[in-house]
Structures are given as C-alpha cells and as structure tokens.
Design brief:
Largest sheet: 6 strands, antiparallel
Protein name: Protein argonaute N-terminal domain-containing protein
Structural class: alpha+beta
Low-confidence stretches: 210-227
Mean pLDDT: 69
Strand content: 15-25%
Order of helices and strands: HEEHEEEEHEEEH
Organism: Steinernema carpocapsae
Length: 227
Amino acid sequence: MAASSSRRPQSLAESRDASDSAIVPLAVRPAFGTAGKRIPVTANCCKINIDRNAWGQHVYRYYVEMYINGTRYMKPAILRRIFWDVVDNNRSLFPAFGIVFNDKDQLWSKRKFNQFEFEAQFGSNNDHTIKLKLVDMFDFQISPTSDQIQAEFLNSLLTQTDRCKLFPNSVNFFVQRDRLFFIPTEGSRPGADDLGRGLQMWYALHSLVSVGEKKPLSTTTAPALSS
C-alpha cells in the first residue's frame, strides 16, 4: 500500500502562528489595501467650551464628613440625598447654589463660607451631623498640567446636573418627534444641542448624566460656573 501523502494536522498553536505570519506582512504594506471595509464610527464626545470669565476664579475646597447616629456614612447614594436635603434646609449656611459636591467627601464652593470649620445637625431628632472643614483654595484652570484635584472638581461640576436633586433634570431636555435636544444653560453656547435619535440619542444622554468614577470628564456639556 502506498504511503499516505496527507500531512499531519496542525495543532491550534501552529495554525495560529501560520495565520499570523500570513496576515502581519499585509498590514505593514499600504499598497495592498486594508483588511475589511470602512465602517462609520460615531463618538458621543464633543468639545467643552468654558466661559473665559471662569478662568482664574477662586474655588474653595472643603472636606465633608457625615455621621448618622454617631457612625460615619460612606454610601454615595445616601450621602447625595442627605447632603442636598441639608443644603435645602440650611440656606443660611451655604453660599447660594455655587457649590459642587462629589457624593463622597469633597465640596467645592465659589464663595468662602463664613466659618473655617462648622457642622450642621439634621434628622428628626437632630442626632445626625454633617461636618465641613476648609482644606485649600485654588484658581480654576484646565490644562494638560492640571492636577488631579482640578480634574475631579471639573468632573463633579459636569455631572452635578443629574446628581443635584434640588431642581428637576427634565427641564434641561426637550423631545421633538424622535430626536432629543439639550437646552443650553446660562453661560453656555447659544442654541440647543441635538443629541441624535435612537441608540445614538441614548448613548449621548447617558454620557451627559453618567457619574464619573475613576475616569475624569464623563459628560459633554458644562453648567455655567458663573451662576
């Protein structure tokens, strides 16, 4: 019987090596074209324009601690709800609405509080406490060399539209047929931003209100810092 001319089947690793050796040379030779056809790519990122009057403004950073029945609370969802309730019920302590809270332990204010350190009582029996202490002050600016504090402040500022519950978020949007538009705020560029339709619309909406965690700058439209 004649010897079989069939070759030994290649292993998975050998097949992968052979495939890679055939594909890689093509990728580095532009004259031979590209692998696959062109597809449209949509990114829901856009340029953020900040009023020049905001640059260089003083921003005061406060450290925040919240205690419930003597135990410090750390859950962002609960801290967020309680904090804005405290602000709403203690307008004399907080400087208007020029404040930004990161739902954890940092508070930024456009104006300096009357006291370097103070605490407010809340709860049905006033047995809960929120403490604020001035940490430092910086001049607002955004550049490639900005430190983490500046980036965290801007991230919290951009996402506060959704996180602050003193005003309904629905007033910032309107719908016409199948398209969603973002209504500009005071200090932003004129004209409503078209957020698109279908999945593109929902991706854009999510990017506007999603809360950043480790990655800074998770939204596309900034409220006015000058308000």
